[in-house]
Amino acid sequence: MIKIIKKFIPKGKINRPGIKMNPKYITIHNTANTNKGANALAHAKYLINVNKEISWHFTVDDKQIVQHLPTDEVGWHAGDGNGPGNMTSIGIEITENKDSNMAKAEENAKELIRYLMAKYNIPLKNVVTHKRWSGKNCPRKILPRWEEFIKSIPIEKGTPILGTTTATLQQAQEWAKKKKAPQGFIDLASIYWQLAPRRGGVNPVVAYAQFALETGFLFRGIKSNAGIDASYHNPSGLKTKAGGNDTNPNAYQRFNSWEEGITAHLDHLALYAGAQGYPREDTPDPRHFPFLNGTAKTVEQLSGKWSPLKDYGNKIVSLLREIEATQVIDSNEDIKKLKDEITNLNLKIDNLKKQLNLVNAEKNSMNQEIMNLKQQLKKYQDFFKKIKLFLEENNKEI
User: Could you read off the pLDDT tens digit of each residue along the chain, which spans 398 residues?
Assistant: First the structure.
């Protein structure tokens, strides 16, 4: 799932009541804001600055998910006062700004819904519209096709094979480097990220993790137990149509290139997951059997199917979680941050200099005033001496 950016409404504001909640529903909204730039971050800024009893938990656009409230706190979004809409549901606003891809925003929202359903054990029947609570025509863009929207949210427990990437190409390559994988394995990651969206919408992280498991990170320059190596261009252990014994190298398909082998790999995963348009005719997958269609929608379900091993799917999940957790140092981004920090420091230094100049100016002014006072005091002292001398000469006391 896309990383969730947290931009919480400050505590104590009127639109963050702080009432604790045990979420039982997920309420879907459309922002009804078609202005350019009215994306998730723009709505986060709005909620932070607004002084009204209006708030929700997440805003989703075509690129990101922004969270405004903890999911165990009440938000004012359902329009039913202290009713179950506000008091027991997580509010999700889907953007509709005209400079975004709304279909992609909806897909991102579905990923978030899926995640929240699993986290809080919320059944699909409890994913509801804003209209359910208050009668408002919301989510206005989705209401006419609500049933279609709901049916497109997968409810299988486990790690979906299909879906947008859950990690970047850079994360995958950095992970492979840390695993001391051969450079060839690292370089092939880019083909997965390039082809996956076009081959059934397979999450490339799933396929790349399986590639690592099946080949031991591209055989690390040696042959497998079956006697196959990188020359087969076979990243996933796919056999020929006729198949054969696991230890027979002739039972495994030889592909003409890595692009062809990776395409076959992605197509085989998409077939198992029941991707739209599968089975397909234009595939290099030698075992593209229609009876496999939709028989394993999650990675965990590949156990006993792609491989006879009972923990096969879990092994892949373990690897893909490592990829998702890998931190990437972006030198360009780091340089930009450093430049910004230097700029901020220079501004602070300039402000301190201005303050110091003011202090120095005030100090100079005070010094001048002290000098003036000293001069006046000296005049008074001189005058006093003259008076004293005069009086002494005239035998008078002060």
Answer: 577 899 999 999 999 999 999 999 999 999 999 999 999 999 999 999 999 999 999 999 999 999 999 999 999 999 999 999 999 999 999 999 999 999 999 999 998 998 788 678 788 999 999 999 999 999 999 999 999 999 998 666 789 898 888 999 999 999 999 999 999 999 999 999 999 999 999 999 999 999 999 999 988 766 677 778 999 999 999 999 999 988 899 999 999 999 999 999 999 999 999 887 899 999 999 999 999 999 999 999 999 999 999 999 999 999 999 999 998 876 666 677 778 788 888 888 888 888 888 888 888 888 888 888 888 888 888 888 888 787 777 776 55
The two three-digit tokens of residue 169, written as one number: 């190409």
Question: How many Å apart are CA 302 and CA 314, to the nearest integer?
Answer: 9
| Rounded Cα–Cα distance for residues 303 and 272 (Å) | 12
Q: What is d(CA 20, CA 13) in angstroms, rounded to the nearest whole number?
A: 15
Q: Give the CA radius of gyration of the chain.
A: 35
| CB neighbours of residue 102 within 10 Å | 18
H or E segment to which residue 370 belongs: helix 331-393
The whole-angstrom separation of Cα 208 and Cα 317 is: 11
CA distance 82 to 9: 20
User: Residue 30 is encoded by which pair of tokens?
Assistant: 């459309």
